[in-house]
């Protein structure tokens, strides 16, 4: 088991490395290929009307005139070992993990990421709880009552759910439940949990439900399909033949096997979401990581975009790792198989 | 006489399908006396499995419709509540299923699943008691080191052990009846024998009633008192097992019995019988021309039979008419062939070597049939893939017609592939479901350079007729054919290139007995018609004996015995061969009992030693 | 947006509004209805009171470029920094025209200019202290100028007028050369005297002295780019604690502030809070229901709230709709074919439907139609309209004539560039495209990110020529409320730069250049105004500018606020004056 | 956004006896495709979805014609429809009338119906092309990985893991943001569409790739592959003639299910302001502009929202039906 974890960990590191390559390519290589020179590239990292001196400084800082391999190396080592920036009077140490430094706001990106994480975390965790509970239970019920009115209604709703753009659902729910009937606070309101848990939950209800609706729909479909497969398995017949009550058969035997693959999907979804539920946060103007990234892209604050992208990737890698370990724990076959 | 523990009357089971309701069981009645053993025998689709599920009340909640009365240990299933039925399952009547891998939940330990079976009916029992009981039960079915293995997961068990574990699970609550549904089908012959012996022991020790469901008459022969033969949902024959097997009344039972390959019938006898039958009835659906050709052939064969029987009297077994040639160069020569696989595992995940085929050598002459027999994992399939060069041997030599083909590159091998062909085990997976059978068969011609579509079609259709199908089937897809028909198609595909050597890898093991018989006959005919040399790989000793001139017995990658087939079967030299033969199920119940005693003896010896 | 404007003459505002209401046509058409707002904070101080106390709550939909007074270029920020960073000169807390006349703040008087016009001298008041109680000296002002203008490698967000004007040799800034004596552009004969030495006379120097860059910075407290996290206060409020960008900023009273030295009353609330990155619609809603006092960016409410306000009489009573001093225009580049021919440029000028462009910005509330390149509030503004058409909708006849004259009677093709992340500018470009299309002038729209628009695309003549950006969307506000402050950057030939160019018409008219140079050497404000009028006329005649809108903002002042008025200097409410009704 | 879809057993064995018995004589001689089509035709819901998809495809194709018959040019301003002070459409229901079927946009007065019709072009174009890119790359990589196994498989599988781990939306936004106006010989909207197609297609291929790999892995173990090899067929022949026909069904099903995902994705990017350049009408772009007017002109928000929803739903319905029809497990 430890060996297994270790191996997955190594795979995670490789994954991160590749992510850095792609991120690097997107931000440094592709623009160069598309014909932007190093001055132009440097200018992007400063923002509004950069002076030639500033461009020169950024160029040096980012090694933009060095060969591409050196640039990449500096980029990665900067992430891992931290970087230094000249504030004029001092050297600012951007300690590892250094997710960049915004020349636009003269701030390190890392603390800002941490600052927004609770918002995204609140959104993701709340929504995840809702969608898991709703999605899985609806999926199970549907599978058990296959072909019934409930099944058909649930599956049609689920299909509608996966077909609805989240930003549309969000806008409509805002228009109805926040504007016409002001039951919930308008978009953009976020109260920290530590400040007022009730206001925190109240403000997040709409984003939670909106986000959870889509995923609940997806998970209901997945669970239903999984349950249908599982309930047709021989070991379910064995369980019934033992004389187990149907409830035990479904929950202990059916659900466990059906839910195992869903763990993987959930881990990936949740990891991606922790890196920013871009659309939901944009629609509800929640000051989370996703909104942060969107704002940064609109404001051409590339170091921030780069930072969020890397940050998200880290979450995905961690989520993958957790899922792998969890999977091995839940399903004993994996340990030998892998 | 006591009341029967299981009583079924006028049981009728129907399933809805797109084509209307299908009747799986058509009003059958039978009783199982207390402590008695009843066998239900039938081919696939006969309704035997539907019946056994009905005994457990497992059709409840499905769309199957069950009418008639079933009484199990005094409970009428038709009127019992769900709770009562649940209470009965596992407690009064326990069922053991066919596929032990899929019948055990992969994510719980064996112990967990055993204990669960106990506690559901004995909720008052403490966990420690339940656990103790599970260990006992595992011990009872012969799982070594049960106290420790109880914590293992199903995938950590071998197939035989899983089947034992399943039986152990069935025994947890001391059921009055044990219902075993095809429990040995997936097992090797030696393991099968062990499991059957175990059931027998359990029955006599615990006084359980046993219902043994199987497609294989030989499996039930030694284990039950009474047998029911099912066909298309009806019981066509029933009675004392000895009576049914020795003097069957119903034609279906007769044909079934006739089709069962018998380990005690030699190839020569079988050939004689087959050829005699062929001359009498030309296959249906053949053109007049083909029939004429067949008649002529039959005449030749008749002569050959006489010839053969003459030789039999002299005691010669290998094909004597070829004896003159056998001194010449063999068609195929395998020398010291080894096949190594890397196996990951162990504490550090190091790759260790595993020899699937270990130092195998033999010669094969034109027109001869070499049987290779062995249990799963013995390396017989690997060996056949080495000969066809689907695998490249790690070391050793494969010489075909004097040419070393061991390491020929693929492009040089390609023209040679005409000469060595293979017939695969599973007719469902050996045909591409998205390709018409015409194209499947014609593919060989195409890849070998034939581009004339008309010519290909003509040859394929000719061959289709030859293997007993119709030319008009050319454009159909495999799903429109039954298993036996598919195997004919697979045979046609192998023969389209007119190979010299055909390797048959378990060609009939997936088929019902009667179909199996037909396919074997076809192979036999074709060998004569096309002057083929066969390597016939199978796990079934009886089948191998019927078709082989010589037999090689494989075990763990090695050939432990290689001799002409009568010698192997009648005077086996190696212990393992003897063990195999002792384990082979036989149709005669008396003989079967004798074998069982013999096996018990063998086991006692080995444990003593 | 490039919101860098200050001051203008308020007198012109109402006239201009009237004018464009008539000229703008389309105004109160059939569905129009009465949507006139109160506007009283434009001409008077609403709810005057001397009350102190309370927490003033401000919000920003984004964030300031920096809180460092030496490193910022936003009018809103310049307005806001006055709460903690006093400058040599400032603007009085008066509505209308008077609000843009500089008055001394830290200095005892306005600047004293030498006879040759090359030296400006200021004297600090007595008893001025930093928040830690230490004395403010002339050296601290000199250091502030040095760091904000001469170290672009560190602080480069603010304007650099001092760098351009001061005679400082090749001084490298305090971060590379920590001996301040080497900085000869500013001298400090004693603790209270500051002398600025200019390369050439500059009559409007007092406006520069009102920029936050003259707010003193103690050299030993300077942390370069990080100074914004802990600015040393000279005003009535100081940072409550070290500030992290993005987090709520809280200002508390500075006990070392002495109101008696201050010409302004800017210490009414006890506490001031600014929240950043507040979603616009939410911000507007909170503004209207009183959770929030001021939208600190000062750009007015968004479309949704605008409709709420305009449709509700009670809300209209608390709203103002002033001009922002921001002029929206298209530059027509004469170095891109076929605009090398004046008649082709004129075809565009005559073809534009300014009412449509006004509509794109949000209609009559969003701005008044502009007919020339000076905002009405700037002295020297005259309501000229050389390319006027009936109803400002364009004239088919005139366009056809112009096209014929330039030799393209069937029209031509060109590109219109705009900032892709600015919805309204995007819409305006589409409106122009629509209008020109009917005359056969086919245009392709080219959107670029606002962040790089001036540095890489529209602001790079080489790029403009290569990509043939014939028509370039832009907007401009004055850095200080004068014609020079408004016009020099967008039409002086010397301001054409290879990157970061703002003279997008690439106008290099010797006459214009000469007049602008002359203006800043002219002491008499009235004479200067005349010169600006003349420059404006010349620029319009060049047919390289298509002005279309004098932007207006719809501002909302919650009931709780007191002392609210629209500052003509900053073009938004004066944040330093605001108080709260208890 | 996207979760791995569950794999249907397209290569699954049809339960042997069930076919022989229940398949009966009726299916004899028909290809599995024909059987699937028969089953699909009976699925009314799926057929409705399919019909809507066809309808939208036709709308996209004949957008100019439809607009010239029924509406106003999509980019034409109708200022007379707009209240000059408020910027919102005059008249009830956001200016809906026989003239303007779905009303007009605030500020510009552009005809919403025409813009929806033209928006279909972008959605369908990007949806289809991106899916094509995914399918081509995914099929190629999946089949290679599954068939050759070993290190090739390990490499490609890891690659797929990596791609699946990417925060796609962020990457897409970043990439659209960092590219200049003209690059790689393309310009403006052509470039934008190409970038969008590339990004969406390129980052989505592992979803198809995984499925194809899985199917290929199981197909490779089937004996007909060995049979083909033992007849002397080359790898290329086996891939093309033996494997590919078996993969057509899953490819078809997952393409059908990937298209709506990609349409949603394009809409999301447009909504976030990194889609196709204006004034080209896109559904997502319209929706993002409608945010400010949800109270005064709800039709402006509902029209594109419903257009996206219905189109995506139709694709999903059809895809689900197709999957069921092609899945041998749902035989009875």
- Order of strands, main sheet of chain A, comes to 1-2
**What would you report as the Rg of chain A, rounded to the nearest angstrom?**
24 Å
Relevant CATH superfamily of the largest domain in chain A: MetI-like
For this structure, what is the CATH homologous superfamily of one domain in chain D?
MetI-like
Q: Any idea of the CATH class of one domain in chain D?
A: Mainly Alpha
CATH architecture of one domain in chain D: Orthogonal Bundle
Return the structural class of chain A: mainly alpha
Poorly predicted parts of chain D: 1-28
Rg of chain D to the nearest angstrom? 23 Å
How would you describe what is shown here?
The complex is a heterotetramer of chains A (338), B (609), C (582) and D (332). In chain A, strand 1 and strand 2 form a beta hairpin. Chain A has two domains: 2-106, no CATH class; 110-336, MetI-like (MetI-like fold, Orthogonal Bundle), CATH 1.10.3720. Chain A has a two-stranded antiparallel ribbon with strand order 1-2. In chain A, strands 3-4 form a two-stranded antiparallel ribbon. Chain A has helices at residues 2-33, 38-44, 52-61, 68-81, 109-144, 149-163, 166-180, 197-231, 234-241, 246-274, 278-284, 289-298, 302-330, 332-337, and strands at residues 83-86, 91-94, 101-102, 107-108. By secondary structure, chain A is mainly α. In chain A, 54% of the residues are buried. Chain B folds into four domains: 1-92 and 178-259, 3-Layer(aba) Sandwich (Rossmann fold); 99-174, no CATH class; 267-323, no CATH class; 367-391 and 408-600, 3-Layer(aba) Sandwich (Rossmann fold). In chain B, the strands form four sheets. Chain B has a six-stranded mixed beta sheet, sandwiched between helices. The longest helix of chain B has 27 residues, at 288-314. In chain B, 48% of the residues are buried. A six-stranded mixed beta sheet of chain C has the order 14-18-13-17-15-16. A five-stranded mixed beta sheet of chain C has the order 8-9-10-1-11, covered by helices on one side. Chain C is built from 18 helices and 23 strands. The model of chain C is unreliable at 1-31 (pLDDT under 50). Chain C folds into two domains: 55-261, 3-Layer(aba) Sandwich (D-Maltodextrin-Binding Protein, domain 2), CATH 3.40.190; 324-552, Dipeptide-binding Protein, Domain 3 (Dipeptide-binding Protein, domain 3). Helices cover 28% and strands 16% of the residues of chain C. In chain C, helix 11 packs antiparallel against helix 13, helix 16 packs parallel to helix 18 (525-541) and helix 17 packs antiparallel against helix 18. Chain D has 332 residues and is an all-alpha fold. Chain D has a domain at 49-69 and 118-326: Orthogonal Bundle (MetI-like fold). Helices cover 67% and strands 1% of the residues of chain D. Chain D has helices at residues 16-23, 32-42, 44-61, 63-70, 112-148, 150-164, 168-178, 188-221, 223-230, 235-271, 283-290, 298-326, and strands at 182-183, 186-187. Chain D is elongated and about 80 Å long. Residues 1-28 of chain D have low confidence and may be disordered. Chains in contact: A-B, A-C, A-D, B-D, C-D. Chains A and D meet through helix 1, helix 6, helix 7, helix 8 and helix 10 of A and helix 6, helix 7, helix 10, helix 11 and helix 12 of D.
């Amino acid at each position: 088991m430890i060996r297994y974890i270790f191996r997955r960990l190594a795979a995670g590191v490789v994954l991160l490395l590749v992510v850095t390559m792609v991120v690097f390519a997107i931000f440094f290589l592709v623009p160069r290929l598309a014909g932007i020179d190093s001055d132009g590239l440097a200018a992007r990292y400063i923002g509004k009307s950069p002076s030639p001196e500033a461009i020169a400084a950024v160029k040096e800082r980012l090694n933009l005139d060095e060969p591409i391999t050196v640039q990449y190396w500096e980029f990665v080592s900067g992430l891992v070992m931290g970087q230094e920036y000249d504030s004029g009077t001092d050297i600012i140490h951007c300690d590892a993990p250094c997710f960049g430094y915004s020349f636009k706001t003269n701030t390190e990106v890392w603390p800002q990421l941490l600052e927004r994480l609770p918002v995204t975390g609140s959104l993701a965790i709340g929504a995840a709880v809702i969608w898991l509970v709703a999605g899985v239970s609806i999926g199970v019920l549907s599978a058990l009552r296959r072909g019934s009115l409930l099944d058909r209604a649930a599956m049609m709703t689920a299909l509608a759910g996966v077909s609805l753009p989240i930003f549309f659902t969000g806008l409509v729910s805002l228009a109805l439940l926040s504007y016409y009937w002001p039951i919930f606070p308008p978009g953009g309101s976020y109260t920290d949990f530590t400040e007022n848990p009730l206001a925190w939950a109240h403000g997040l209800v709409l984003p939670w439900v909106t986000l959870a609706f889509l995923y609940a729909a997806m998970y209901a479909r997945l669970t239903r399909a999984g349950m249908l497969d599982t309930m047709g398995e021989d070991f379910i017949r064995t369980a019934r033949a033992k004389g187990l009550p149907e409830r035990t058969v479904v929950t202990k035997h059916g659900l466990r096997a059906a839910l195992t693959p869903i763990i993987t999907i959930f881990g990936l979804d949740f990891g991606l979401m922790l890196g920013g539920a871009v659309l939901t946060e944009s629609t509800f103007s929640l000051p989370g990581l996703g909104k942060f990234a969107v704002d940064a892209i609109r404001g051409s604050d590339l170091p921030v975009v780069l930072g969020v992208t890397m940050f998200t990737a880290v979450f995905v890698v961690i989520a993958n790792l957790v899922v792998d370990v969890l999977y091995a724990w839940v399903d004993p076959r994996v340990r030998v198989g892998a | 006489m006591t009341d029967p523990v299981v009583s079924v009357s006028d049981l009728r089971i129907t399933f809805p399908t797109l084509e209307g309701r299908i009747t799986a069981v058509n009003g059958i009645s039978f009783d199982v006396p207390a402590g008695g053993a009843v066998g239900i025998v039938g081919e696939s689709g006969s309704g035997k499995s539907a019946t056994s599920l009905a005994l457990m009340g497992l059709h409840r909640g499905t769309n199957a419709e069950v009418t008639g009365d079933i009484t199990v240990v005094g409970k009428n299933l038709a009127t019992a509540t769900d709770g009562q039925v649940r209470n009965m399952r596992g407690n009064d009547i326990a069922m053991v299923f066919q596929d032990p891998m899929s019948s055990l939940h992969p994510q719980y330990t064996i112990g967990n699943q055993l204990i669960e079976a106990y506690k559901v009916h004995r909720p008052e029992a403490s966990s420690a008691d339940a656990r103790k009981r599970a260990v006992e039960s595992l011990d009872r079915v012969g799982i070594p080191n049960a106290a420790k293995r109880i914590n293992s997961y199903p995938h950590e068990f071998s197939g035989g052990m899983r089947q034992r574990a399943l039986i152990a699970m069935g025994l947890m609550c001391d059921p009055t009846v044990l219902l075993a549904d095809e429990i040995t089908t997936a097992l090797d012959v030696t393991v099968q024998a062990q499991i059957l012996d175990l059931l027998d022991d359990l029955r006599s020790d615990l006084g359980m009633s046993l219902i043994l469901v199987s497609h294989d008459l030989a499996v039930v022969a030694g284990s039950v008192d009474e047998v029911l033969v099912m066909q298309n949902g009806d019981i066509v024959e029933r009675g004392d097992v000895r009576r049914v097997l020795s003097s069957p009344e119903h034609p279906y039972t007769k044909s079934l019995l006739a089709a069962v390959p018998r380990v005690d019938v030699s190839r020569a006898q079988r050939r004689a019988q087959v050829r005699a039958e062929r001359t009498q009835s030309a296959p249906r659906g053949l053109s007049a021309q083909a029939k004429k050709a067949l008649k002529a052939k039959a005449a030749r064969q008749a002569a050959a039979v006489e010839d053969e029987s003459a030789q039999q009297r002299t005691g010669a077994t290998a094909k004597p008419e070829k004896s003159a040639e056998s001194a010449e160069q063999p068609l195929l020569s395998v020398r010291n062939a080894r096949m190594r696989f890397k196996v990951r595992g162990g504490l550090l995940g190091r790759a260790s070597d595993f020899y699937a085929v270990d130092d195998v050598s033999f010669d094969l002459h034109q027109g001869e049939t070499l049987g290779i027999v062995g249990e799963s994992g013995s390396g017989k399939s690997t060996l056949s893939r080495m000969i066809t060069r689907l695998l490249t041997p790690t070391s050793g030599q494969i010489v075909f017609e004097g040419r070393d083909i061991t390491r020929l590159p693929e492009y040089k091998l390609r023209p040679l592939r005409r000469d060595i062909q293979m017939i695969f085990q599973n007719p469902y997976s050996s045909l591409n479901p998205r390709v018409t059978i015409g194209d499947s068969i014609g593919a060989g011609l195409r890849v070998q350079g034939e581009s004339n579509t008309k010519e290909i079609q003509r040859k394929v259709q000719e061959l289709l007729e030859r293997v007993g199908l119709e030319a008009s089937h050319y454009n159909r897809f495999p799903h429109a054919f039954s298993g036996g028909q598919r195997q004919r198609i697979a045979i046609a595909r192998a023969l389209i290139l007119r190979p010299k050597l055909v390797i048959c890898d378990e060609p009939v093991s997936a088929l019902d007995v009667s179909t199996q018989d037909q396919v074997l006959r076809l192979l036999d005919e074709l060998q004569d018609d096309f002057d083929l040399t066969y390597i016939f790989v199978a796990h079934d000793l009886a089948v191998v004996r019927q078709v082989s001139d010589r037999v090689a017995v494989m075990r763990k990658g090695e050939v432990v015995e290689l001799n002409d087939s009568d010698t192997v079967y009648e005077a086996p030299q190696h212990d393992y061969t003897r063990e195999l033969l002792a384990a082979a199920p036989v149709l005669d119940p008396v003989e079967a009992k004798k074998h069982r005693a013999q096996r018990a003896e063998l086991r006692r010896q080995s444990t003593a030693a | 947006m490039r919101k860098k404007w200050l001051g203008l003459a308020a007198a012109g505002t109402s006239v201009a509004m009237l004018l464009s209401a008539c000229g703008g046509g389309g105004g109160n058409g059939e569905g129009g209805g009465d949507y006139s707002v109160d506007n009283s904070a434009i001409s008077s101080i609403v709810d005057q009171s001397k009350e102190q106390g309370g927490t003033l709550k401000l919000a920003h939909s984004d964030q300031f470029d920096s809180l460092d007074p030496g490193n910022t270029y936003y009018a809103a920020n310049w307005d806001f920094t006055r709460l903690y960073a006093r400058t040599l000169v400032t603007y009085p807390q008066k509505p209308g025209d008077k609000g843009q006349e500089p008055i001394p703040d830290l200095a005892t008087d306005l600047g004293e200019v030498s006879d040759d016009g090359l030296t400006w001298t200021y004297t600090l008041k007595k008893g001025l202290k930093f928040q830690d109680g230490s004395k403010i000296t002339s050296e601290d002002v000199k250091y502030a100028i040095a760091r904000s203008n001469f170290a672009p490698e560190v602080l480069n967000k603010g304007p650099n007028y001092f760098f351009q004007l001061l005679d400082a040799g090749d001084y490298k800034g305090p971060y590379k050369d920590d001996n301040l004596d080497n900085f000869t552009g500013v001298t400090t004969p004693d603790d209270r005297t500051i002398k600025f030495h200019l390369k050439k006379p500059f009559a409007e120097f007092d406006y520069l002295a009102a920029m936050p860059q003259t707010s003193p910075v103690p050299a030993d407290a300077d942390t370069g780019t990080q100074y914004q996290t802990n600015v040393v206060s000279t005003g009535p409020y100081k940072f409550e604690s070290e500030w992290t960008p993005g987090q709520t900023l809280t200002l508390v009273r500075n006990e070392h502030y002495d109101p008696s030295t201050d010409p302004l009353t800017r210490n009414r609330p006890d506490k001031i809070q600014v929240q950043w990155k507040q979603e616009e619609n939410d911000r507007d809603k909170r503004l209207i229901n009183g959770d929030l006092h001021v939208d600190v960016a000062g750009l007015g409410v968004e479309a949704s709230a605008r409709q709420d306000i305009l449709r509700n009489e009670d809300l209209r009573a608390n709203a103002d709709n002033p001009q922002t001093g921001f002029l929206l225009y298209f530059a027509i580049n004469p170095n891109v074919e076929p605009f090398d021919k004046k008649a082709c440029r004129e075809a565009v000028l005559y073809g534009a439907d300014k009412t449509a462009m006004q509509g794109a910005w949000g209609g009559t509330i969003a701005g008044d139609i502009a007919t020339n390149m000076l905002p009405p509030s700037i002295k020297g503004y005259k309501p000229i309209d050389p390319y006027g058409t009936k109803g400002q909708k364009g004239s088919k006849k005139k366009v056809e004539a112009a096209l014929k004259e330039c030799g393209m009677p069937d029209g031509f093709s060109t590109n219109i560039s705009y900032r892709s992340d600015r919805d309204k500018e995007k819409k305006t470009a589409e409106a122009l495209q629509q209008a020109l299309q009917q005359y056969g002038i086919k245009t392709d729209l080219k959107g670029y990110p606002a962040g790089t628009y001036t540095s890489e695309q529209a602001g790079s003549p080489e790029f403009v020529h290569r990509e043939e950006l014939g028509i370039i969307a832009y907007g401009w506000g004055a850095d200080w409320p004068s014609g020079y402050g408004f016009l020099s950057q967008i039409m002086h030939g010397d301001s054409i730069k290879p990157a970061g160019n703002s003279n997008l018409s690439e106008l290099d008219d010797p006459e214009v250049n000469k007049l602008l140079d002359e203006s800043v050497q002219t002491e008499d404000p009235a004479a200067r105004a005349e010169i600006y009028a003349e420059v404006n006329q010349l620029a319009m005649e060049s047919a390289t500018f298509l002005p279309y809108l004098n932007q207006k903002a719809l501002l909302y002042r919650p009931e709780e606020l007191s002392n609210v008025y629209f500052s003509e200097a900053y073009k938004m409410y004066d944040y330093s004056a605001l108080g709260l009704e208890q | 956004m996207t979760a791995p879809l569950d794999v249907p057993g397209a290569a699954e064995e049809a339960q042997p006896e069930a076919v022989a018995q229940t398949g009966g004589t009726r299916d004899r001689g028909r290809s599995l495709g024909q059987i699937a089509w028969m089953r699909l035709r009976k699925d009314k819901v799926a057929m409705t979805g399919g019909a809507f998809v066809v309808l939208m495809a036709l709308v996209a194709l004949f957008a100019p014609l439809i607009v010239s018959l029924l509406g106003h040019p999509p980019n034409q301003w109708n200022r007379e429809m707009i209240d000059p002070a408020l910027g919102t459409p005059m008249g009830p229901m956001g200016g809906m009338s026989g003239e303007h079927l779905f009303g007009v946009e605030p500020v510009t007065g552009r005809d919403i119906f025409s813009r929806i019709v033209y928006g279909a072009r972008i959605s369908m174009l990007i949806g289809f092309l991106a899916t094509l890119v995914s399918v081509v790359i995914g099929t190629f990589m999946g089949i290679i990985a599954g068939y050759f196994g070993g290190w090739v498989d390990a490499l490609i599988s890891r690659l797929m893991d990596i791609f699946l781990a990417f925060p796609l939306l962020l990457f897409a936004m970043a990439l659209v943001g960092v590219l200049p106006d003209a690059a790689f010989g393309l310009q403006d909207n052509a470039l934008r569409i190409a970038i969008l197609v590339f990004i969406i297609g390129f980052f989505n291929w592992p979803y198809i790739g995984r499925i194809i790999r899985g199917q290929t892995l199981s197909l490779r173990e089937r004996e007909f592959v060995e049979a083909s090899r033992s007849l002397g067929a080359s790898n290329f022949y086996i891939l093309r003639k033996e494997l590919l026909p078996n993969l057509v069904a899953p490819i078809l099903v997952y393409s059908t299910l990937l298209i709506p995902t990609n349409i949603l994705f394009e809409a999301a990017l447009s909504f976030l302001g990194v889609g196709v350049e204006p004034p080209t009408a896109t559904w997502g772009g319209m929706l993002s502009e409608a945010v400010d007017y949800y109270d005064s002109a709800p039709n402006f928000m509902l029209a594109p929202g419903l257009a996206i929803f219905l189109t995506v739903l139709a694709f999903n319905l059809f895809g689900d039906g197709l999957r069921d029809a092609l899945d041998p497990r749902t035989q009875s």
